[in-house]
Write a structure and sequence with these properties.
The structure is a single chain. The protein has 402 residues and is α/β, with parallel strands linked by helices. The protein is 34% helix and 18% strand. The protein has 13 helices and 17 strands. It has helices at residues 10-19, 23-28, 38-42, 57-64, 97-107, 124-127, 131-145, 162-178, 197-209, 227-246, 250-255, 274-286, 327-333; strands at residues 46-47, 68-75, 85-86, 90-91, 111-117, 149-153, 183-189, 215-219, 257-262, 264-265, 271-272, 291-295, 363-364, 369-372, 375-379, 383-384, 396-401. A hairpin with a 2-residue loop joins strand 14 and strand 15. Helix 7 (131-145) packs across helix 8, helix 9 packs parallel to helix 10 (227-246) and helix 10 packs parallel to helix 12 (274-286). The longest helix has 20 residues, at 227-246. The relative contact order is 0.13.
Length: 402
């Protein structure tokens, strides 16, 4: 996930920051709705609107009652620069594709949050000179889409970069100050102990800057987890870290804590079922946690028989399910009741013919198509000797069985 534009200078950044207090009002002229309650933004599952066979958000809303979506990811341009793009390739300033998705959601009474960062690609905190210019880049996103919520997904390799994290946390604080009412979440890696050393350093950076978001969320997967019990244990440990870092009592820490899970089979082969989600949901609500979300709606459907649930996919969960089963837990967290009817699973696409076989010695650029392991794959960016499917966040996008 990842064009060449010069980074905005400090003067431009200060000018945008000064105008930030009117950003939400200005954005509403381009289609923003009245803000939903914070609980809906806290429950918004991740959706890639242009990659990984994006599902129809209107259909999800009708089937589940979901109202909010977490759109991912905004990154720096692949070619360098300090301007926001979708996935490093599509400029936010000229975007119409994501805007169309947002319009569809808002026309049905819903809304979106936008997530910046994620795993892979160059982050704006790495590319921009300082916190002010980083904030100016994100302000463009807020103003463009009339956002009421934003998520800072700070994970490796960016969170290992001290200056980048200082820019991201500083930018988050500027946006929070200059966009009154903006819901801000910060998402980072989860470990059995709560979060790792770099996650703890990020919290200390937030403390040093005097920044408190609506929540700090951890992702308890891809770290040797096994079901809900290991996840709730990590959430308990993370609560202790929040207490010791910020001097909060237990209840205050929970009120600033969030969970971000992965439905079905994780990147490292862990499995999280619907029952696991229910257990973590019960934990989150009983402890009055601020956020419950998951990666991702693109995966919230059953895999085709050809997949046999034996691999991690960006487009299905690899567990037995009806379409949008996992989204219903987000609806419950928001305080709503999902429809009682069982949605019909998404029809399995008819397999297409296989493209030319992938070669370890060939060089591929964005848009090239190959076949590997009975699936077709499309290159997201330049790569060589990167096996398709080795990582969900790698250079190859799965285009389905062939």
């Amino acid at each position: 996930m990842r064009r060449l534009r010069a980074c905005l200078g400090a003067a431009a950044a200060v000018s945008l920051a000064a105008a930030g207090s009117t950003a939400l009002v200005a954005g509403s002229a381009s289609g923003a709705t009245t803000a939903l309650s914070n609980r809906w933004y806290a429950a918004a599952p991740y959706l890639m609107p242009t990659d990984n066979e994006p599902p129809d958000p209107a259909a999800i809303m009708d089937a589940t009652g979901l109202k909010a979506f977490q759109l991912a990811f905004v990154l720096a341009p692949n070619g360098g620069g300090c301007t926001p793009t979708w996935g490093g390739t599509s400029s936010v300033s000229s975007d119409t594709a994501v805007q169309s998705v947002i319009n569809t959601i808002r026309a049905k009474g819903g809304d979106v949050s936008v997530s910046i960062g994620g795993y892979g690609g160059t982050k704006l905190g790495q590319a921009c000179a300082d916190a002010a210019s980083t904030a100016a880049a994100y302000q463009q996103v807020i103003t463009k889409y009339g956002l009421h919520a934003i998520d800072f997904d700070l994970e490796e390799p960016e969170y290992e970069n001290t200056s980048a994290i200082k820019n991201e946390i500083g930018a988050a604080k500027i946006l929070q100050q200059n966009n009154p009412g903006l819901y801000v979440s910060v998402t980072t890696a989860g470990t059995a102990d709560g979060t790792g050393w770099f996650g703890k350093q990020m919290l200390l950076e937030a403390k040093s800057q005097g920044f408190t978001p609506n929540n700090f969320s951890i992702m308890p997967f891809d770290g040797g987890f096994s079901g809900a019990a290991s996840q709730t244990s990590a959430l308990t440990n993370f609560n202790s870290i929040l207490q010791s870092t910020f001097g909060w009592n237990q209840a205050t820490a929970y009120a600033h804590e969030g969970f971000s899970g992965m439905n079905g089979r994780s990147d490292t082969g862990e499995y999280f079922s619907q029952a696991d989600f229910q257990t973590v949901l019960d934990y989150a609500t009983s402890h009055n946690m601020d956020r419950f979300t998951f990666w991702s709606l693109n995966r919230d459907r059953q895999c085709s028989p050809a997949d046999n649930g034996g691999r991690t996919s960006g487009t299905c969960s690899s567990v037995a399910q009806n379409s949008w089963d996992f989204a219903k837990y987000s609806v419950k967290f928001a305080g709503a009741t999902p429809p009682s009817t069982t949605p019909t699973p998404t029809p399995t696409p008819t397999p297409t013919s296989c493209k030319t076989a992938w070669s370890a010695t060939a060089t591929y650029t964005a848009g090239n198509e190959v076949s590997y392991n009975k699936h077709n794959w499309k290159a997201k960016w330049w790569s060589q000797n990167e096996v398709p499917g080795a990582s969900e966040w790698g250079a190859w996008q799965d285009e389905g069985a062939c």
